[in-house]
Write a structure and sequence with these properties.
Blueprint (H helix, E strand, L loop, with lengths): L5 H33 L11 H40 L1
Helix pairs in contact: 1-2
Length: 90
């Protein structure tokens, strides 16, 4: 297998770093949104209640589902754009 040159390695590293940053941002946004939605600002007990836990589970599931749907839609749009550009230039 051919060795990757330095430019390709740098590009791959940059893409990996960007993906990590994006996933970290997703996690932080999800945590803040679901905490705000499901956990009251005044804590009455040290542990989550059953209602809070169920709310958090559903919130996270919905957040991740929407994230996946948006990712698929953006990928499909990108593929369409690439096909359109290829047709226009060829």
């Amino acid at each position: 297998m051919a060795q990757m040159n330095a430019a390709d390695q740098a590009k791959m590293q940059m893409m990996q770093d960007l993906e990590i940053e994006m996933m970290s941002d997703l996690y932080n946004r999800m945590t803040q949104a679901c905490h705000k939605k499901c956990v009251p600002p005044r804590y009455s007990e040290p542990d989550l209640g059953k209602g809070e836990s169920v709310c958090l589970d559903r919130c996270v599931a919905k957040y991740l589902d929407i994230h996946e749907r948006i990712g698929k839609k953006l990928t499909a749009m990108s593929v369409q754009d690439e096909a359109l550009l290829k047709n226009m230039s060829g």
